[in-house]
C-alpha cells in the first residue's frame, strides 16, 4: 500500500535520496530537473512561499516511489493557491505507477482543503490525470523545444541548421558590435537592470532580485546569467538553467529580456544564438525556450530557431473562484497593465516583488 508523507523541511539526506530517485525515474514518470528539491528552498527564501513536499513510499522505510513539490502562494490581494511550482513551467507529480500518482494527488487535494486555497495547480508535462477531483485543464500554451542532438559539429553545426533569415539577423548583431558574457552573481546588477526595465515595459510586476541570486547560489554551475552589451551598456540578459530530465541533458531559459531601445541591434536574436552555442558546447540534447501560446509573437520567435511545440497541460482541483482570475491576460487587468507601464522603473522594482509573490 502506498503511503505519503508531507515534508516541510527537506534535510540533506532526504534531498540526496530524492535526487537519486529523480535521476533513476523512468521515462513517463514526469521527472525533470525542475523537480530538484533545491527549488523549494529558492521559493521559500526568495519569494516567501510556504513550501512542502509530498513523498510517497510503499513501506515506511522503503525507497521513494513518488514525489510532488508544492508551494503555498498567499496574498491579501489575490488569495491563496497551492502550486507545483510557481515560476517554473513543469514540476507536477512524479510517480513510478498509477497507484502512486493517485496517492500523491489525494494528498495534494487534502492539503488544498486544509489550507483553504482557491485551487490546486499541478504543472504537469509528461502526463495528465483523469480523476474526479480534477475539474479544469489548461493546455493553451505549449513548451517550445529545440532538438540539438542532431546538430552535427556541436556549436559550429548550429549555423548550418539555421534558416537564411535567422543567419542574416545574427549577422546584424555581429555588425552592431555586440558582446556577451556568461557568469554568476557578478552579473546580477546588469541582468536585473535590463530585466526589470523590460518587465515594466510589458506591464508585468518584476520578480525580486534575490530570486536570481538564490537560484545562482543554489544550483552552482547548473545556473548562469548571460548579459549582452552594446557599446559597453547592458541591453539584453537571460538566466540559463542546465540539467537532466529523463536521462537527457537539457538547457532552458526561464527568464530573458531585451531593452526596446536595442531592437535595432538585433540583440535578442544574437543573444539566443550565443545561448544555443553555449548549450551545444555543453553537449546538451534539448534547448527549452519555455511556454508560448500558438501563433503568438513569442511562439513565432521560438519557432524560427527550429523549436517544436510540446503539449503541456496544467491541471486544477478548483475549490472556488476561477482558474483564470489572476492570469495577466485577464481583460480586467488591462488598465492596470497600462498604468504600470507608465511608472518609473525604480518604483516597479520596489513594489513589483511584493505583488508578484502573490501571483501563482
Summarize the structure.
The protein has 360 residues and is an alpha+beta fold. It has helices spanning 12-24, 38-47, 98-114, 155-161, 164-175, 188-202, 209-219, 267-281, 297-303, 334-340, 345-356, and strands spanning 3-7, 50-57, 64-75, 79-84, 94-95, 119-123, 136-138, 142-147, 179-183, 223-230, 233-245, 248-258, 286-292, 308-311, 314-318.
How would you explain this protein's 3D organization?
- The protein has 360 residues and is an alpha+beta fold.
- Helices cover 35% and strands 28% of the residues.
- The protein contains eleven helices and 15 strands.
- The strands form two sheets. Strands 1, 2, 3, 4, 5, 6, 7 and 15 form an eight-stranded mixed sheet that branches.
- The longest helix has 17 residues.
- It is globular, with a radius of gyration of 20 Å.
What percentage of the residues does DSSP assign to strands (E)? Answer: 25-35%
Put simply, the count of helices is: 11
Overall morphology = globular
Mean pLDDT: 92
Give the SSE order as H and E letters: EHHEEEEHEEEHHEHHEEEHEHEEHH
Largest sheet: 8 strands, mixed
The level of helicity is 25-40%
Class from secondary-structure proportions: alpha+beta
User: What is the gyration radius calculated from CA atoms?
Assistant: 20 Å
**DSSP strand count:** 15
List low-pLDDT spans.
Answer: none
Give the CA-CA distance, first to last residue.
33 Å
